[in-house]
Amino acid sequence: MYEVLVYLFENYYQADLTPDHGSLQRKLTAAGFENEDVHDALDWLKSLTDVPQAALPEAIDLSDAFRGYAPKEFGKLSAESRGFIAFLESAGVLTPILREIIIERAMAVADESVGLDKLRVIVLMVLWTQHGNVDTLILDELLPDGSQRQVH
């Protein structure tokens, strides 16, 4: 699933150029991705774009609030992942609302654990879908090692 998400970002960086769901599914299958991975990635991405920010509590915007993790979140997100989220938030890359969306999307993946590499892809997709662009310096931190960096 993560490879499909990175492929989508690299090939459809401008979100308004993304083809419809059916065409996208055919293109991804033709690109060599497994049907199950394509289906999982597109469902996950659709759920991400359907996240209503209005559903999040207003108090979440408090910038000096401490974010503790529920036992389920603590168990699923590796220590590196939790540290990376804190780093991005302290660097001003993430707002509290974006942080919550990232945690929610990480909890939605079928994987038993979400390590740093997987979390980086999740953060990349959240920033891409919520902002429409990703800062070049942040992009270098988020793309998995060895990924093409042809984004313009």
User: What's the total number of strands?
Assistant: 0
Number of separate helices = 8
**Total tally of structural domains:** 1
Report helical residue fraction. 55-70%
- What is the residue-averaged pLDDT? 79
Percent in strands: under 5%
pLDDT < 50 runs, ≥5 residues: 146-152
Largest sheet: none
The SS-based structural class is: mainly alpha
Amino-to-carboxy terminus distance:
24 Å
Global morphology: globular
Compute the gyration radius: what is it? 15 Å
H-E order: HHHHHHHH
Task: Describe the overall structure.
The chain is mostly helical. The protein has one domain. Helix content is 59%, strand content 0%. The chain has 8 helices and no strands. It has helices at 2-11, 21-30, 35-49, 71-76, 79-90, 96-108, 116-131, 136-142. It is globular and about 45 Å long. It starts with a helix and ends in a 10-residue tail after the last helix.
